[in-house]
Amino acid sequence: MRDELKPAARPDYVADRQPCPDFERFEPLFNKIREGVKSGLRKPRPFRQERVDLGEFFVLKGQLVHVADVREEHLRNDKPDARLRVIFDNGTESNLLMSSLVRRLYEDKDALRIGTVEIGPLFEGARTGAVYVLRSLSEKPEALGLLKVGTTSGYVEDRVARAETQSTFLFAPVEIVETYELTGFSAKEAERRIHRALSAFHVTIRVTGPDGRTFRATEWFKAPSDVVEAAILKALD
Fold first, then answer.
1. How far apart are the first and last CA of the chain?
2. Residues 6 or more apart in contact with residue 5 via CB below 8 angstroms
3. Which of these, 117, 14, 141, lies nearest to 67 by C-alpha position?
4. Confidence of residue 152 (pLDDT cuts 50, 70, 90)
5. pLDDT tens-digit profile of 85-127?
6. How far apart are CA 72 and CA 94, in angstroms?
7. Rounded distance between C-alpha atoms, residue 150 and residue 133, angstroms
8. Helix residue ranges, H only, the chain
9. Cα→Cα distances 234→84, 134, 190, 196, 229, Å
10. Domain ranges of the chain
């Protein structure tokens, strides 16, 4: 097992890669991960997972990989799947399916899991994403009065682009009600805290996609906007 992680290892597949336009946001995180592994603060472990989560880091084919965003969650062969934004430490990114990334990690006998980025020194002083509060513009009666609260390690405008094609947004456009910049917080940890604070208001909606498949849409809450704001501010305090 490697004692340190070297940057920009050459991958054996490039077909689904493209340059990462905001790599300067992620490069410090990769550097901190390497420093943490070298110092023993973070312990890479063999990959043995059925899924990957927002914020996690992995070593794949000798290259450091970061799951920066999880979107378009759906069922694939009756198993949860999603479209990911995966950042590689050589300045490229991919929109792999979760199932594809998991398969590639299993195929690499040397693949490692480094884990999620927790709140703490790793993110000190760095913008790590945003919390968003959205209102659905769906005409479905069950969507009236609901707010969607989530996080992204990217930018909210990118996250909600083409919302009408995604089950998580009820296959409908959305209105951005409010956003909160994250500095020093893991987006995943911030989301966990906020959802816990709003658990009494949580609503799960079943939506049918254009192809007739049914999806469960989560992260929706039936609560006044001031209650949501208070919960977010308390969770981030």
1. 38
2. 33, 34, 37, 38, 44, 59, 64
3. 117
4. confident
5. 899 999 999 988 999 999 999 999 999 998 655 434 444 556 7
6. 15
7. 7
8. 23-39, 98-107, 156-159, 187-197, 225-236
9. 29, 19, 11, 11, 9
10. 18-117, 123-236
